[in-house]
Amino acid sequence: MNRLSPEEFRRSEKVPIVVVLDRVRSLYNVGSVMRTADAMALEAVYLCEITATPPHPEIHKTALGAEDTVSWKYFQHTIDAVKELKGRGYEIWSVEQCEGSTLLQNIEYKVNTKEKIAIILGNEVKGVQQEVVNASDGCMEIPQFGTKHSMNVSVTAGMVIWHLCCKQVVDKC
Description:
- The protein is α/β, with parallel strands linked by helices.
- It has a single domain, classed as Alpha/beta knot, CATH 3.40.1280.10.
- It has 7 helices and 7 strands; from the N terminus they run αβαβααβαβββαβα.
- Strands 3-2-1-6-4-7-5 form a 7-stranded parallel β-sheet, sandwiched between helices.
- Helix 2 runs parallel beside helix 3 and helix 2 (27-39) packs parallel to helix 7 (153-166).
- It is globular, with a radius of gyration of 15 Å.
- The two termini are 18 Å apart.
């Protein structure tokens, strides 16, 4: 299957994408996002405010070990994570439905140019904090057509990460 060992993964080149989880309550969602970050070889996952951190059995249940391979960092305040990332040259995008948001399919990310991007995913009920949205370079949203205009945060993460990575990294997509 051509899989890297955990040690090889830690040493491998990463896609310059950081996922920021803003007050995500479900430990299963945290684990799922970490597993997706491992699958797509992302740089890191930032866990903020009430978002739980490893080690934890519920995170492990969905991460299946990715909590040990993916770099992660905890921030007491999400806005501090945003400030750090901006200081390191990251473009910051909140994944949120808001006035002036850009549809996901219109996001142009060029991973091959080493452009650095951070995506912020919010609380399962309240979304991304307004202060964090205001500090972002933009908002992206996934078009939805049913009666529910929200999706599970780990599903949203998977869709956004796949879109950003596969347009440039995997020619098969």
